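Students often ask why we bother predicting the structure of a whole assembly rather than each chain alone. The short answer is interfaces. A chain on its own may look different once its partners are present, and contacts between molecules only exist in the joint model. In this exercise we take two input lines together and write out one structure for the complete complex. Read the inputs first and try to guess which parts will touch.
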Amino acid sequence: MGLLDFFIRKTFPHGIHPPEYKSITQHKKTLRLPFPERVILPLAQHIGAPAIPIVHKGQYVVRGEVIAEPAENALSVPIHASVSGSVREIDLMPGPKGSKVMSIVIDTDPSSPQIPVSGEYQDYTRMTPEQIINEVKQTGLVGLGGAGFPSYAKMLLPKDRSIHTIIVNGCECEPFLTTDHRIMLEKVDDLIRGIQIAMKAVSAERSIIGIEDNKLEVLEAISPRLPADGRIQVEAVETKYPQGAEKMLVKSLLGVEIPSRGLPSEIGLAVFNVATLAEMGRLLPNRQGLVERIITVTGDDLAKPGNYVVPVGTPLQDILDQADFTGQEAEIILGGPMMGLPVASLETPVTKSTGGVLILDQHAYKPKDILPCIKCSLCLQACPINLNPSELGLLADKRRYDVMEEQYHLNDCFECGACSYVCPSNIPLVQYFKIAKTLNRERHIQNG
Amino acid sequence: MVALGTALAIILAIANKKLFVREDPRIDEVDEMLPQAQCGACGEPGCRPFAEAVVAGRKNPSDCTVNTPEGNAQIAEYLGVDMKPKEKVVARLACAGGTHVAYTRAKYEGMKSCQAAATVAGGGKGCSWGCLGLADCAEVCDFDAIFMDEHGLPIVVEDKCTACNDCVVVCPKDLFSLHPVSHKLFVACKSLAEGDDALAECEVACTGCEKCAVDAPPGLIEIKNNLAVINYELYDQIDVDRTPIERCPTGAIVWIDSKLGTTRSSVGKEAQRSHRNEPLPLG
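Now the answer. The structure tokens for the assembled complex follow.
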């Protein structure tokens, strides 16, 4: 990167620069952890309708077998057994959001070789877009970056829309996390195949991989292996939080904005995470289901932090044991420190959309006194989508949730947490907004 | 300038005569007799709209739950309408899992608000359905009718409660509901977990054992999703005594008497544990 590039590097306005803490795990090769004794597979690991179980208690299932089918006529994907073993129960278990959710619990068969079932090889270059989209649905693939939006649904377009460019999100702007970094180094072939599959499914002309410029080694690793036709490009973007939000990345790479409350497909784009496409490139040709994922286990008091492959549904307790957690008490977060959710139970499983397990002790948030807003406007300078968090926070204090939504564009907020991060008065702004959104949703449901 | 002032004054004087709205003077009088809590418990937006509704005959003076019965009788006498005696309605909490009987699995250190805790991992209590104990209800109550006890559970002071519905709306776990005081039989639990799973998190949880349903008059109590649910429509038509609570092993179903307070089964072993005073250890 030359000096000139430094000044004209691609970016979006506002945002913040939190410390990265990525050096803990970014040079550690991905390793597979031993299989847990038991996996817990929630029926709703994706946005949309929960899958419907098709197995019964005591039934023996094989790794990769479909154990829950997608709900009919709804946004939904199947769930595959992530280990071979017998179904222990289908019951309420602690979910990643805190409340108990319906889950299928499987006792791992210790004598099984744990080889995932695969179907007949299929060549995606000879498949029609409809066939590809259907096969993507069968893999149970959802956005692995965190949101858990079913991947097939991003490719299903209304007739009046078309996609010209696929944006591949390799930013990984959350501090601590390094899964996407490792995938882009270790799984380049899968990733490129995944991009080609996605391009074929939506008939896109080109694709751009966006990588934050703190990962230039990735850029150097990928560039020489791109197909010669030049339809896939790699671009570096500024390292800044929340660069990995799809709206921000599109703005940085192409200089265009996704309309308020709109989808990228409205301006001819589709945005996928690198982990999602790498899995697509690996699973789809072999007709396999999503049974495992890479997570970053990092933070304080860990003897063995690293990037690990674990079966979906592995309880946190197993992961902490394997990574040799040496502390007594810590805050455990699924995902990154900015947008991840703390968990209240070690029985909580890793789901399809869990990108990392973060253990915080000395870095943990210690509650501070909330002071009055001094209208310093730091939050306005941090908000990547130009909202007014200060005013929104004052309204939330007065419980004027309706005004927040109707006049201050509350629903455009994607809860990146930049405003809370910079607030010198320690006002938990993004927490207020989450409450406001939840209560607004409830109100709308009540009013029909 | 003087001419303009005079002209406008004349217009105003005419408008005052022509557009005068004759308002029933009794509305002002009734409004003055009301407690001015503006709570909305009567179903009207505030006290003055309620006064209008009473004068128009759409509401009865007794619909105001904040005013004393004597005060309401005074309004009825002033307007010459019959008082429709109305039973007192109070808010009740469907959870008895204070920190002394319900396990806390994780320490919550965020915003001191139940609604905030509910959005992050449900606050740390083992039971997903139980009271988070961060006092959103006590804070929202305009009448000081809710206070938090030493075990982190809100206690409703029946005399002060006006059934304004604010606590029902604010609770993220939907634990409050409004009941006439004659509804003495009450299930103080919302856990949908099954038997031992429920007990593992809270010692006074409803396990769905059906003993109360068997002992109660037919059809009064039904077990839905491992939770006893009382059919209050039927309750209002028949005489119910405290038989259904007697065999409850955990004391999840209670008998609430305005004078005697809340009483539990004297048989259930676990029910006795709720007399413990110390909070349970973390974990």
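Check your guess against this: The first helix of chain B runs from residue 2 to 18.
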